[in-house]
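How a chain folds remains the central question behind the approach discussed here. The record that follows shows the chain in one-letter code together with its fold in C-alpha cell form:
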Amino acid sequence: ALPGHLLRGLLPLLTIFHLERAEDAARRAGLSTQPIWRKLWDDVMKTRPPNSESITCWRKKFLETFFSNVLHGVLDVSSDWRLHDRHFSPLLHSSPHVSQLTLCNMLQGAVELTAEHNHKVLENLAGSLRILRFQHLLSCDQSIRRSLVLLLHRLIHHGSVSQVSMCSWPVPDTVLLVLILTMSAGFWRSGNALAYHGSPCGLCREEDKAQSQESAEEGAERGCNAEQEGSGGENQKRSPKEADACMTSVRSGPMSPPLQNQACEETSSEVPCDDTSIQGSSSPRSNSEQLSCHPIPRKTRRWQKPAVGRKRRCLRRSRGHCADPEDLYDFVFTVAREDNSGLLDKTRTTEGENTENWSSSSSGSPCTGHAGYKKRGGPAGTLSLKAAHRFRSVSTLELFSIPLTGETCRTLSNLLSSWVSLENLVLSYNGLNANISCILSGLRALSRHPECRFRVLRVSDMFSHMPCMELVRCVLSTLPQLHTLSVSFDLKNQLEGSRPEASPSCSEAEIPESCLEVLEIRFPREPLHAAFLLPVLKASKSLQQLSLDSATLPCPQELGLLLEVLKECTPNLKKLSFHDVNLAEHQKEVLLLLQGPGLQEITFSFCRLFESSTAEFLSEIINAVKRNSSLKSLKLPGNRLGNHRLIALADIFSEDSSSSLCQLDVSSNCIKPDGLLEFTKKLEGHIQQRGGQLPFTHLRLFQNWLDQDAETAQEALRRLKAVCSVVNDAWDSSQAFADYISVM
C-alpha cells in the first residue's frame, strides 16, 4: 500500500525474496522491476548473457540462471546480501521460474533434485520446465542412474518437459544414452517399479486406480450384456438386484476367461505383452498394423483388470498370462544383434505388409548386446523387458556431437517408429554415415501412424554419406508431410570411392507432393545443379524459405536456371539465402533477385558480391532495392562493403524511394567509425526530407572495425540509436586483417 515514489526508492534495497513478493505491488503502481533485476544480473553473475538484446524478462532470466548456478554449486548465496535471507530457499523459490535446465558431468544435479528434502522443488519443476539438456555427461553408477530415472519420470512422464537435448558426449555410455532416449520416448517400467523414497509413484498409482475402475465397470457391463444375449428371454427379465450382483462379482473377483481373452484382443499396441507371442506366431502383424490403434476409446487401451486383488499388469504378463501378437516390446525395443556381416536384416515391402523384420539373437532374447538391455539382472536404470509401459513423451529431440553406433541407431529407429508426439528431430555430428537409412526407416514407420505429428528434421555431420540432393530426395520421398528440412555437411566422404551409388528409389522415383515450407542445404563444396533441385522444388509448392550454403556453381548459366526454376515452381517463396557461394561473376542474377516482387528477405552472406564489381553495380543494387516495395530485409554480411559502399547504401531511403526495407545487416564488412558516422548523417538527412517517416528499424553491425576510434564510434552509435535499433558487439579488429587475407 506504499505510495509509488516510496516504493520506487524501496525496491533496490530489497533482497530477492522480498523483491519477488513486491512484484505485484510494483506492477499495480506502474513500476517496472526490470532495471533492478538487470543490475542484479550484472552484480551477481558478472557476465554478459548471450543474445541479451532478445531478453524480455530479466527477472525470469536471473532466477533461472540463479537456480542452475546454485544447483551445480557455482554460486555462493552468501556472496551478496541480496541473495541471503532466512526466509529464502534458493532452489525452492526460484524453481517456478525455470523453463530450461542443463544437467552436466556426473549428473549431480539429478541426485540433488530427487533428494527427499527437494521434493517440493521437483514438483515445481514438473510444472514449469519445458527444456531439459544434458551436456558433457560421464558414466555414472547405479545409484545416480536411479536418481536420473526418477527425475525423468517426474519431469517427462508426469511433467511438462517437451524438449530433450543432449550434446558434447564424445564417448557416450550406451546404457545411459539409451535410458534417456527410451524415457524421452515415453517408455519405461510401470509406476510401482518407480519408487520415490521407498513409495511407488503416486501419480502412476492414482492413474492406474482410476483406469482399473473404469476398465472393470466396462468389462462388467460387457460381460453382463453378453450373458443376457446368450441366455434368452428369461435372462432379459433379470431383476436389478441380480444385475448389481453381476457387477459386484466382477469388481471383487478375477476376470472370467472370456473377459481375459477379450482384454487381450482389445489391448492397443501401446501396452507390452509376453515377448514369445511374436516369435511363436506364424504370421506376425506388420509394423504399420502394430503402430495403428484399435478403434476403442483411449481409456480402454490399457490392460483391463479389476481394481481389487491384482498385481501390476507388467508382472502378470511377465509370467505368461497373456500372449498378445501385438507385443509392444518386440516392436519398439528389439535391437538386432549384429551377425558376422554386421547388417540389419530388412525386408521392404509395400505398405500394409511387413515393413521391416528386425532380427533377434539366436538365444531367442529380443534385446541383447550393446544397448544394455537384458532379461534379468540388467544394470540399474535399464528397462526390464517385461515391464515396458507407455507414458507421456517429448515433442523435440536434439542430439549434438554424440557418436551413434549402428546398435544405437537401430534402438533409436525402433523408438522413432511409434513416437507419435515427436515433432522435431535434430541430429548433429553423430557420425551416422550409412546409418542415416536406419533412422529414415524408423521415421517412415512413424509417418504412417494416423496420429503422427512429425514436421521438422535437421541432419548435419562432418562427412556426407551420399550427395546432398540425393539425401534430400530420399527424405522427401519418405516424409512428404515435413514442413522443415535442413541437411548440412562439412566435407565429402573421406574416400570418395566409398560413397554408395545412387539409389534407384531416391534418384529415379518421382517425389510426391510435399508440405515443405523451409529447405536448408549446406553442400560439402558440391556443385549445385539446377536440374537436381528441380524435382524437389516442383514437389514443394508451399516452399517459403530456401537456403543454399557452400555450393559451387559449375557454370555461369546454373544460377540463371535456378532463378527460372524458383520463379516457376515456388510462387510462395518469401526468404532466399545464399551463404559462401561465389557470386562475383553473377551480377545480372543478383539484380534479378533484388528486383523480384515476391521475396521479403534476401541474404547474400560471404558471397564476394563486390570482389570485382564497379561503382555502377552498386548503383544498380541501390536502385533495385529502392523500387522493390515487397523487400523487408536485406542481409549483406561479409561482402567487403567498406566505408564508401555503406555510405552509398543510405540512398536506399532517399525521398524518391518506394522501398519498405526494415532490416539491414552489414556485419563483417570492414566498416570503420568515420564511415559509420557519415552513413548516420546521410540517413538523418533522408529522414528530414521524408518528414520523419522511415520504415528502417534494425541495423546489424557485428564484427566491424569500430574499435579503431572509440569516440567517433560512440557518437555514430548514439545518433543511429535515435533512428533505429542497432545491434553490435565489442569486437577486437586486430584479427581482422588476417581474416580479410584468408578469404581473398
